[in-house]
Batch of 2 targets.
Target 1
Amino acid sequence: MRNSRGCHAYVWTAFRKQRLKRGFRLRQLRLEEYVLCYVAEGSGEITVNGKKHGIEARTLIMLTPAMRIDELSVPSGPLQMYRLHYTRIDAASPAGGKQAAAPGAQKRLAGEAAGAEVFPVASASAFVTKLEELYRLGQEADECLHLRAQSLFYDLLATACEERSARAKGGDSSVAATIDYMKKHFREALDLGALPKLAGLTPSSYCRAFKRAVGMTPGEYLTQLRMEEAKAMLSSSSSANRVKDVARSVGFSDELYFSRLFKKREGLSPQIYMKQAGQRVAIASKLFLQDHFLAIGIQPIAAPSFPNYFPTRTGFPVYLQQRLRGTKALNAERSITPQEVLPLSPDVIVQIDTGQEQGQGEWKKLGETFMFNGYLSWHEYQRQIGTVFNKENQAQRIIDHVQKVEKAAREALLPVTRQGEWTIVRVLENEVRLYGTEGHALTDLFYDKLGFQPDPHVTHASYKPDALMELVRIDPERIILFWSEKEDVERLWPNPLWQSLRAVRENKVYYPESKNWDPWGPLGREYMIEQCTAYFLRAIPSI
């Protein structure tokens, strides 16, 4: 049966991940292919066919052949972008090749328009996961993986088309204008009832479109804007009558109502928040305790980073990059010294007493240094930090929240976890590590919390180094590769011992982009659960 919408297909031709530095500027470029751009981080401006668009994180840009990019600029900080090029193939043509551009023909492509289409993506996390997986598959030479990549490419195009159509039906371009208006005027006495009229929609249509755009109601979004500004103001000064001034500055005429609302959202009063937020905490440990501090409302003035591992500008993982703006990155790939931290005038320096790190005696001599015992579970760290910094309630609340996230993910993953037995492997340059069933934050999350079933032959704790021969003995049914660099995996893959494994022969080796998966802190754990769930629900068909 002939497709009534026309015989043509789409093929992606190039895929790039770019990090554009502050001050970057591109001028005058005419496109020869379709281009889908997704901004994952940062902000900038793009001018297409004479029309300027502001772009920021979660923004999708759809461009078509013959469009002219007049300028792309990044005036304030780095911008991370995915850029996917693709072309249309006319299956009805004798050669099955590219169709010559014909008047109106390009209108048939999802996302085609007279001008660039720029809009926020509601399902941003899932969209990035798909982009990362497509990028990974694009590096492979295997034909089966190529077909999977092409399928994923169509899924991305369909998602972009659906997002665009939903916003067009819901009037989301007008909603975006009201969001900008709220950002500029949230400090004033805003009349939320006037926003639907401003968008040209009925109140019910406006609320649906608004929630689809930002994931919350207009009232919730307004409160979030005000509370984020209030927290920044409370953290920056300790002047008299501060709470009353802050309440009025962010749009609340009633100080009592502001205080009740603040305590309900943050777990403590504005007065206590102001006092505690003023503490200058520097984290001088190799462990990522900044995750735990951020979760309870304390932004450290300095924290460890790994610039050669994480591809961000600061060396912080992607899920912490924006939240740690203003925090000094301490390169933890070498020893952190007191001389790096003391000039910041910290009130408290946090260290982990592992008994192994060099120079810990030097830190202990500093009276303002607090030493935590090493290698506790993430929630034990959270409770200890909450106790030391008088935030026990906030610490317990974040622990309860992560447990709810774990439970929800476990239920969502049942179609996957009931299918077989799993073995966790990490491939490094000179060794293959085999993870056990306990004694490690990764295995605790993967097996105990999310419900994956370990191979019964794996009985050890933590992990075994140099375990390739052990893997051959076990011959696992399914393997998942965590935290493994692409070049190390490619080096291992042709090894006859690796090729002899049942999981390899049956194509049951799973390799998600897991560099930013971190189960040791509440924010990283929640990010990892979200990414892990999305990956496996896509990669493993249900029974």
Target 2
Amino acid sequence: MSAEATNPVSAAEAAVTDPTVRRRGRARIDLRRLGRAALLGATAGPAPRDRLPDAISHVAEAHRAHHPEADLSVLRRAYVLAESSHRGQFRKSGEPYITHPLAVTLILAELGAETTTLTASLLHDTVEDTEVTLDQVRREFGDEVAYLVDGVTKVEKIDYGAAAEPETFRKMLVATGNDVRVMSIKLADRLHNMRTLGVMRAEKQARIAKVTRDFLIPLAERLGVQALKTELEDLVFAILHPEEYENTRALIAGDAHAGDALSAVAEQVGAVLREAGIGAEVLVRPRHFVSVHRVRLKRGELRGCDFGRLLVLVAEDADCYAVLGELHTCFTPVISEFKDFIAAPKFNLYQSLHTAIAAPDGAVAEILIRTHRMHTVAEAGVVALGNPYAGQEPYAGPTPTSGQAPSTGQPVPDPVPDPVPAHPVLPVLAPDPQAEDGERVDPTRPGWLSRLLDWQQSAPDPDTFWTSLRAHLAEDDEITVFRADGSAPGTISLPAGASCVDAAYAQHGEAAHGCLGARVNGRLAPLSTVLGDGDTVQLLLAQDTVSGPSPEWLDHARTPAARIAITGWLQAHPEAVAAPADVGPRPQASVTADRRSDAELHADLDGEPPTAVRPAGCCTPVPPDEITGFRVRGGSVTVHRAGCASVDTMRGVGREPVTVRWGDTPQCRVTLVAESFGRPRLLADLTEAIATAGAAVVAATVEPPSEQRVRHTYTLHLPDAAGLPALMRAMRDVPGVYDVSRARRRTAAEPRQA
């Protein structure tokens, strides 16, 4: 059986030419024709200087379509060097190897990449797979091309072993931080490899597809290169989920009239815009396979309008809003589907208006409204920016040979054999340009990339870097929060779902180890508070230099920078995590706490021992809370948490505090209050979470719902007080629960909340 028959990728490629599957058209290279052209060029000698070799003429045509004045002589020289150096090499599919750099270059040319990027893409495998050296590339094509070629060149596996792949990604990302075109070449390289993956073994196909899914597709999304991202998604979908892919393909192919419904809506939309005097182009934009699959999971049975969206292209930004106004006036809009990414562009440069209208048959037709320029950027992302470094002097020094660390200006010791050398760090060739107000000038260096480059320096271990990078790229969106201290820059960019812990480390670095709390939108908030887009944050830091993070911070940290910093501090200070030891014998009177708590409490008194030592009901202390005690009527001692408002009240009336401490019994009884939104089965889910955490319910009350909010109060027996934080986290994780706190009564000293 042929590889094409067994490989799901071949089905994905076949679907592109299937007339029943209407996808965004993109020219594909005829590898056999290119191979023949390349071989003929090799046997017939170099092409005359007045024309390009036949094998690269199609690249030149695509390039001139975007850059009519481009100088093609450098492409000719790059092709001649690539063809001669790869001569005699063949791909596993049997084609001459030169067809691969040609295909990669054509992909970038169709996206509108400028000449320097295309030159580097033709040469991107020469240093790695041939006798051509980086110095030779630099001499013939300059530092800029050499830097791009080195950025996508893999590190030597013989030096790095199993760490070669993560260290190659690290090297490539550092290079991307200085020149984003490095990642553009890598994405096009992976796309062509995924297109021709059918000759590989099934297990290798799956491994490459998983790396593509976890790392390269998220990077394509963040760089805004949707044209590459969507096709990579379909190819990965076909390999990792062949059954779902075939079902989706059959669903699309089986609905021969899928485009008719959208075409009818497109005609109506076009007529409305013409009548309003708005010049616009209305196109039917079919969904790709993964998009159809997601819509089917979301909506169930699909209608004709679900197989695509309408794209409205106009000339000016103001026309976008004029189109939106006409659509919402003449059709029934679906308000929940409206999004304005023009006024608030996405973090990957994407701009567009999203809306939806009700079609005559009751189906929902989604519509994208953008200018022609926005559409180019939406498809090609940073590639559409051309050369963002034109006019700068970014290349301040020689590019190191691939796999070598850059020169630091320090004396270089004699080389010492090392089976796993330090990861290569490319020089910072392009300065991080800042405007006077602190905002970045360079649009190709977004906040997520700057954060990635910061934390990767703190992750020397390849496994830590690989795991942290996967988690970092798994974040789907980005938020912006404002700094309340007024210092520049005034904003912090964080991934969606980030907490105050993440904001602290993003703003203060290692100084965040001493963070005590935060004010979010002017109100005190715990560090576990999840931040929303547009929140104002003020971090409160300790004045001493010995304070450190709590292990619980790891439960709230979402960014790799915060997690790596916290983990590093905890590993360097194991004594801070260990339980404090007893400080020796002292005069004491031991009385077991009363029935309101199973924990053992001791009061250290010089005189008559108390009749009882019991926890106060206003703050319900449990081990290992910091506590203080006071004598009350009847000779007993009431124990409060150190931060309880009643402590100040007791001292204000002249009561002397009594030294109290916890005994050795780990069990305790505690009262927790869960604030939640009302929903069915909430009580059952909460009690299940409590039971799963190993706690027993002693008593429970549920207050009547108020404004769809419900308060649950539980008195729980814990076999070990150390499990209380985990129990509270488990209760907070129950859907509908938005807060869990220790029970406390309002005292007379406390003001009533408005």
